[in-house]
Prior knowledge:
Elements: E1 4-6, E2 12-15, E3 18-19, H1 25-36, E4 42-43, H2 44-52, H3 60-75, E5 81-84, E6 89-93, H4 100-112, H5 117-128, H6 142-168, H7 176-185, H8 190-202, H9 206-224, H10 230-240, H11 302-313, E7 320-325, H12 332-343, E8 351-355, H13 366-376, H14 388-399, E9 405-411, H15 414-418, E10 428-433, E11 443-446, H16 452-463, H17 465-470, H18 472-481, H19 486-498, H20 504-512, H21 517-520, E12 522-523, E13 526-527, H22 528-537, H23 541-550, E14 557-559, H24 560-567, H25 571-583, E15 588-593, E16 596-600, H26 603-616, H27 619-644, H28 663-669, H29 673-692, H30 698-707, H31 709-715, H32 718-734, H33 738-754, H34 758-771, H35 777-793, H36 797-814, H37 817-833, H38 837-854, H39 857-873, H40 877-894, H41 897-913, H42 917-934, H43 937-953, H44 957-974, H45 977-993, H46 997-1012
Helix pairs in contact: 1-2, 1-3, 4-5, 5-6, 6-8, 7-8, 8-9, 8-10, 13-14, 16-18, 16-19, 18-20, 23-25, 23-26, 24-25, 24-27, 27-29, 27-30, 29-30, 29-32, 30-32, 30-33, 32-33, 33-34, 33-35, 34-35, 35-36, 35-37, 36-37, 37-38, 37-39, 38-39, 39-40, 39-41, 40-41, 41-42, 41-43, 42-43, 43-44, 43-45, ...
Amino acid sequence: MATRFGILGTIEARRNGATIDVGHAMQRRVLAVLLVDADRAVSADALVDRVWGDTEPAHDRRKLYGYLSRLRHALAADGTAITRERGGGYRLAVEPSAVDAHRFRELSDRARKAGGDVQAEALWREALELWRGSAFAGADTPWFNAQRYLLDGERLAAELELVDVRLRLGQHDGLVSELTARAEARPLDERVIGQLILTLYRCERQAEALEAYERARRRLADELGVDPGAALRQLYERILTGEPQLAEPRSATTNPTGTMQPAATTKPPGKSGTVANVGPPMARQLVPRLLPADVSLFVGREDEVEEARRLLGEERPGPATLLVTGPAGVGKTAFAIRTGHLLASRFPDGQIHADLRGFGDEPAEPFTVLGTFLRALGIPGGTVPAELTGRVHLYRTLLAGRQTLVVLDNAASAQQVSDLLPSGARCATIITSRTTMAELCGRRLSLDVLHPATGLDLLREMLGRGRTDADSGAARSIVETCGGLPLAVWVAGARLAARPHWPLAKVAHALADEQRKLDELAVGHIAVRASLELTYQQMSAATQHALQMVALLPGPSFAAWALAALLDAALPEAEAVLDDLVEVHLVQAGSVNATGIRYQLHDLVRLFARERTESDVPERDRTAALTRLLGASLHLADLAADTLSVDFQGISQLDLASWRLAAADADQLLADPLAWFNDERQFLIDVAEQALDGTEGVASAAGLATALTTLFQVGSHFDDWERLQNRALKAALSNGDRHSAAKVHRCLGELTTILDRYPEAVDHFEQALLLAEGEGPTYRASATAGLAYVHRLLGQYSTAVLRFEEAAELAEAAGNVNCLVYATNGLGVIDLELGRVEAAIARFTKCLRVSRVAGYRPGEAQALRCLGQGHRALGAYPAAADAYRRAVAISEDLGDRLSATHATCWLGDVLIRQGEHREGRRLLARSLWIYREFGNLWGEAATLYALAEAQLAVGRPALARRRAKAAVMLWRQIGSSRWLAIGLDTLAEAHALVGDHTAAARARDEAEGARKA
């Protein structure tokens, strides 16, 4: 037989009916603590605190370890072990059912759920027979006293439950003595009095029953100044009227006639409290049910509700606190009420609730709230302490041994709620707030806006599926324009529900108008604007101004540096005020990226803030703030481009930056310039477009568009590049700004070259040169080099050579090393394509040396790539492969996938020529996929050509012919005569190998014509 343990009396252990020696009193206390948390770890600190309390002796840890060791030895005979857990606690490995207290609770739970009173009686009797006296007899520490208080309350509740069952079974004759004694011991317990009165009445002792009532009434009036509760008064009146049903026991499925419900009985939310005296003698233990009615329209939030239930249901050493945070209108109150109702069964001693009105004109004072709570807990109004400290102490004393849920809604600060938090280990508190209350201890759960599908479900619940499905497009539009904010969706739905004749499109159209949106989101006394206004009015003037400035930002996502520019402040100052805005959930802290935190502003908050900006901030101040933002964006973008050193334009935009961050802050942000750009790309585009929409600052906006060229190129963001710079070009030309137009034309020439749109590229470069006439070499060098490159691609070598040589002279005069390398490299490529391989290699070697000295890494990668081509032309494939690999490494490190692919393609080609067919074909296949992803026709054609050569090398002429045909078609489209001829040679060879000699001859003739052209 397994060892059995007892704590409902003296602390003991028995095996096969015989008592086990578990040591002296202190050692038995250690055992008792482990038994209360049977099969769960208890930390050493908790053991010391619970066993010794406030009288911890010296060397208590050593004594504790000795007691644990001796207990292990005493219990080891049947395998019962005390184990040291990973987290540092100690666990008594025993089933809870082997401990009388846990067994008592298990039997009590089964009795409450029993299908009939006969079964319930047997279970209650079995549970109560486990008691041998006062729990933890002889143990006197605060923890043991609190546990004893709790268990005594459960014992009393069980005794009263058994009386109710016996009354229903008609066993009243045997209850008079027991209840008389209990009523004398608990003269203010109305439930006990009610049971005694009913028992006397059923025993045909009506006069004694009425006398017992009168005695109780006088005592309640004399000692507490109150009348009996409603249930006891009703029982008295039923006796007076001689109600026949009162004299007979009820069926086993009904409640006891006329008596009070036990504390553990759960009643529907919103009903009046029940009575079960387990608290201090001065208080009738009311079981308050103060939660507001559950929210009928509650959709979604399943994961959040489950998380809240998990957090509040976890084992813990003290009371649980859950802070639910989120912006105004996100549904925190509804969430807390729904969660409270779902958790009600876990808190049989009641649920109390208060709206703290933390962001209203008159926030609730803890003193007042505590008065309400104490009266709800059964304290008569005249005995509620007159000072705050007394109320706090009484409140916590009442809840110390109870299992009560406290809901504190709409709190402003930790200070407002600190006195309202219970200390009972089995209590829990749910707090809702718009602030994050960093100083509050507890778990946190942040609510976000609803997913569009959930928002649509909310609208459907309000209006009916038929009405929303009939105009699903308008319904989706309503949810979208509300930004998923539950309050906004609810208000829109309420307006429609009140006007069934309105089509959904009417509200959807009104909400789409930003000038009217906040006006539309109001119904009765509920309005989104008013909800936001409450939060706004509680903020400092500096924080209000920061929100006004944030409303000027062009996009939904931003970093702290943008606000620093708007405020004309240092970066740390902007970060501090953003923390304040995040604290009240008007700004959300989004993702944390390599360059810092990104912040977001809900659309409705933006509209509210914009209203305040337009009313409170003069237009000149708004314009100045946006000018600073443009300057900061231009400054950072130009520094990032300069750090990457990819482009060869050689024109700094910094002179156009009217405002700059401190150098240290800029350096910190741009520690990884490519990561910074990836984070800020859309924001920078939005800033530029916002400036281009105005009449002032076009030069700076065009400068920002120009500065982004490098970043667009490295990241292959060609669509953004073209769209933004076409806008900038149009604006510059409209304003007569020749300098800006020349720069943008040159950048668009580079883009269209990359995209194989050579006629457009020629036009852009020529326009850039035309607009730069009379300017110094700085404006003309890069446009001349770009034009030369296009001529080279078109096979117009003589023109290309002249342009490259001119570009090299201009670049040298302007001190533009990047452009000088680019032009010199271009001359080398022409040498290579005309068969002057040694001369080409000499130029490429020079470009490599100059690029390394200048730190021009894209130039270094290009030189290595071209050196690889030179070695390939000489048949030195290992040297070529090494050069390609180094070029790939540099380009990948820069994040330039397209340039890396240029080298990877030719690496695959030379590997095949070295016999590494599988790896070579793999690299070529990957290159083909990337070229097609970017729409790079020249690269796609080169890869198809290399794949055709690879297929010929392994004896697959049919497949080679297909690849060669595709390459030839692309080179015809591009207009590159030299490479068209090379592709036609490969196609001719493939035709001949499959036996189509006529087609082979045609291909050779066309190749010859292309060379002559």
